[in-house]
Design a protein that fits this description.
Length: 326
């Protein structure tokens, strides 16, 4: 038996659109859509995938291909942070870090680190300052040059940076959180402490969250989704140790279709569901009847796709499990 040796199904935005319109009988093989019809179908497809992102489609499985690990660098001056969007706090999916190997005085624009090869021009860089300045806050700027272990900064240091202080750097801001799943506080030795999630009521009832004298390691966070970003609130007014940072496991938004050849940000097993979902969405637009056979195909495709990645948990409830009978 001769097989292809190819394990990948690649499908584009316009292929999804054409197949969906073929399924409802709007086109015959070889026919095409007008530019306006393609644009209208593309909009319908984007509204569909946005509604299916996260767990909004009611699937028992998670959109685990959109799961990311976000790193949020903390401040001694605030307990509120923007995740994603144009005004994002220092929030990224990937970072590097090293430590200062020499003291740097206030007003200088260079620092010396243990491992300069980790850093590159243009990165955002956060440097731990002396504890006498803003409780030892991180100061942020960009890298303009790297020579060996010496890093040149775009701005002068506002205070002294001492040997052993941590230095973080990253290149790209992460997307907003759609579904936050877990959170830990990670120290410079990569040791993690679990962080609790609060509800909005828990956060509002917390008495000292904005007291500038209440500076400590965060124990709990509340994450609120907005339109183009999320906001993370800690239970403290500022972090006492900026060498620690928050690590959030979350699902980010599904990418939209922009170009005709864009591939869906869904596994290939979702291709049939995307086609039949769009077919159902645009059938009224083309005044095409939605038949029982079409509905059966749509239902089957959605059912199979949504059960591909079942939700697995290490905790469950069981009736009458207690030896006391309650």
């Amino acid at each position: 038996m001769a097989t292809s040796g190819n394990y990948t199904l690649t499908i584009t935005r316009d292929q999804i659109i054409k197949q969906a319109v073929l399924y409802i009988g709007k086109l015959s093989e070889g026919d095409g859509l007008t530019a306006q019809e393609t644009q209208d179908c593309a909009l319908a497809l984007n509204t569909l995938v946005k509604q299916w992102q996260g767990m909004a489609d009611g699937a028992p499985g998670l959109k685990m291909w959109t799961r990311r690990q976000g790193h949020l660098f903390l401040s001694t001056l605030t307990g509120q942070y923007i995740l994603g969007g144009a005004n994002s706090s220092h929030w990224t999916n990937s970072y590097v870090n090293s430590f200062l190997s020499q003291n740097s005085n206030a007003g200088t624009n260079t620092i010396t680190v243990n491992t300069g090869s980790l850093f590159s021009i243009g990165q955002q860089i956060g440097i731990e300052l002396s504890g006498t300045y803003q409780n030892g806050n991180l100061t942020w700027t960009t890298i303009t040059n790297v020579v060996g272990n010496v890093i040149t900064l775009n701005n002068n240091l506002p205070a002294a940076a001492l040997v052993g202080g941590i230095v973080y750097a990253y290149s790209t801001t992460a997307q907003m959180t759609v579904v936050p799943e877990s959170c830990v506080l990670r120290d410079m030795n990569n040791e993690d402490i679990p962080i609790n999630f609060m509800t909005v009521q828990d956060y509002q009832y917390f008495p000292s969250k904005t007291d500038p004298n209440y500076i400590s390691d965060p124990v709990s966070v509340y994450i609120e989704r907005n339109l183009s970003f999320s906001t993370l609130y800690t239970d403290v007014a500022g972090s006492s140790d900026v060498s620690k940072h928050l690590v959030v496991e979350y699902m980010e938004p599904v990418q939209t279709f922009v170009n005709p050849t864009d591939n869906p940000e869904f596994p290939e097993e979702w291709s049939r569901a995307l086609i039949w979902g769009l077919a159902k969405e645009v059938a009224p637009m083309f005044t095409c009847p939605w038949t029982p056979a079409m509905q059966a195909n749509y239902t089957e495709a959605m059912s199979i796709s949504r059960s591909l990645d079942p939700n697995r948990t290490s905790m469950y409830f069981q009736c009458n499990a207690s030896t006391t009978g309650w």
